[in-house]
Design goal:
It contains five helices and ten strands, in the order αββαβββββαββααβ. With 164 residues, the chain is of the alpha+beta class. It has one domain. The strands form four sheets. Strands 2-4-3 form a three-stranded antiparallel beta sheet. Strands 9-8-10 form a three-stranded mixed beta sheet, covered by helices on one side. Strands 1-5 form a two-stranded antiparallel ribbon. A hairpin with a 5-residue loop joins β3 and β4. The longest helix has 11 residues.
């Protein structure tokens, strides 16, 4: 989504967004029902680690909590779809959280806002105003519309996430 200001190769080389510390498990991507329909025919898909929310399978998340090998809070566990060359999912299979990374849609005091993940090394090398202008001009409207149609994708606001 941020291809206009970030190179795909830069993100693929970094892969920071594809691993999770215990404190960042809330960032694990949400798979929509549509993602799961596409993935169910993938021979590499193992849904056994998915925690399904809502009875109608509206969305699911991978439960990574038992993948840690130590008690170190900084230990990272990779996404099950992180391969040698980056994400192994197609654009149709990829969760929305991954597509919009390092952006996050958050609820701040009842208002839906687009915020920037402060830990993304690649985006933080860019001027914030450049990122803000790109998102405002090209992405924000569609991102908020999608989030409003899929409210379970909206995360609670965190004060260290700058609002775009």
């Amino acid at each position: 989504m941020l291809g206009g200001i970030l190179k795909k190769e830069t993100c693929a080389a970094c892969r920071f967004c594809c691993s999770f510390r215990r404190t960042s498990l809330w960032e694990a991507p949400v798979f929509t029902y549509e993602n799961m329909l596409v993935l169910k025919d993938d021979p590499f898909f193992d849904g056994s680690d998915l925690t399904v929310y809502l009875e109608d399978y509206t969305y699911a998340k991978y439960d990574l909590s038992d993948k840690y090998k130590t008690d170190d809070p900084n230990e990272e566990v990779p996404c099950p779809y992180l391969g040698e060359k980056g994400c192994t999912l197609s654009e149709r299979e990829k969760p929305w959280d991954c597509k919009i990374w390092p952006l996050r849609v958050m609820n701040k005091d009842g208002e839906i806002v687009v915020a920037l993940t402060p830990t993304c090394p690649s985006i933080n090398r860019l001027d914030f105003e450049t990122v803000k202008e790109f998102v405002d001009t090209n992405l924000k409207k569609d991102i908020i519309e999608y989030a409003n149609n899929h409210p379970y994708l909206i995360k609670e606001y965190r004060s260290d996430y700058p609002i775009i």
